[in-house]
Amino acid sequence: MTTKAKAKTETAAGAPGDTRTRIVRAASRLMQRQGYDGTGIKQISQEASATLGSVYHFFPGGKQELAVAAIQHGDQEFVEELRHVLGTVEDPAEAMIVLSRRMAEGLRDSDWIDGCPITTTSLGAAGRIPDIQTAAARTFARWRDLVQDKLRAGGIAQEDAYELAHTAISTLEGAELAAQVSRSMEPLEIAGRHLARLITLYK
Amino acid sequence: MTTKAKAKTETAAGAPGDTRTRIVRAASRLMQRQGYDGTGIKQISQEASATLGSVYHFFPGGKQELAVAAIQHGDQEFVEELRHVLGTVEDPAEAMIVLSRRMAEGLRDSDWIDGCPITTTSLGAAGRIPDIQTAAARTFARWRDLVQDKLRAGGIAQEDAYELAHTAISTLEGAELAAQVSRSMEPLEIAGRHLARLITLYK
DNA sequence: TTCTGGATAGAGCGTTCGTTCTAGAGGAGA
DNA sequence: TCTCCTCTAGAACGAACGCTCTATCCAGAA
Fold it and tell me: Looking at residue A173, which CATH number applies to its domain?
């Protein structure tokens, strides 16, 4: 009631189909597949059933601001997948196998087009656009932290857990990339087994 | 002397500065940094000190053909680095540590812009352009084969060597990506140590 | 010398890019 | 009813895109 604006969608309700959300989702999906430069604002607005005016209304910072939001959306998506697997499978080593298999299946089911939700978006642009580099770095750190906590909870020493979490994320990332490019689940399946084996060494 | 044409540059000498080579090198370097869609043909021709006419003379297939040549160039570049390290360091496990450190140093020395020579080029385009996906897949397979041979020579069984080579390439790839995005050598250094540890398990 | 074909040179094509701008629709509060 | 403000709508701009095209250069063959 003061002059300060209310939360933007307080009255209109932040429904899942609300325009801003549709735009972010479309941007995230398209950039995941085609990269930052390969995806146009107009394509995003069409895919989101929104107009150019709406896009620039919600993202006055233009394509760069939209890309950062898309990365954060992809981040959150994988955080939920990660939380689900780590929360379901008790043994951290076993969890790596389950995780890699699920990633492989998701990749195959999308006909090898939906890889890591943030790598493609950020790779070509990170060198030119600092905000995108920062957002991508924060994402990796977040994923690593989740794995690290799981390893600690599994009885692994802090320093070992820290390093293993680094390698777990790196290896899964690289294996997903290799799997996508070679259109085969094998790199991810092998990576899962090796990560499990590596983790059991530190228990 | 027959009607069959001689090798194109037989007389003109395939000097390192020859136009076609300069174009491929510029394309490879630029696409490595900016991706397929982020790199323009005109930018490549300027960087190579060539003209648009020359580019389309040597690459009538246009940007796609040029991108494939750029990937093969990047492939060859890393093959030489790989051959050098694997040929110098006798122990395969130790070789992984040396390799990852050299990759980390190269990345840092380029101020974190020169990552994997083919990932950025191929990621956004592989889904749309089959030739690029195929070239990237062949590249990964080639790198893996070199590592696999080294592991075999180090006394590791065929099946184990096959799988370890997969994980070695995946992990190095992912760690380079993480290192680039977080502007830190740590992911690569940790990856090298873990790969070495993993390899010694199979000896 | 004349001829030939690889290589260089760059103007210009149609298209798409990211962005800006003005206009209007729709709902809440006075 | 009138006002205000968020959000929708899309035409239009200059720049850059990939690519085509014609013209020219020049070394070696005839």
Answer: 1.10.357.10
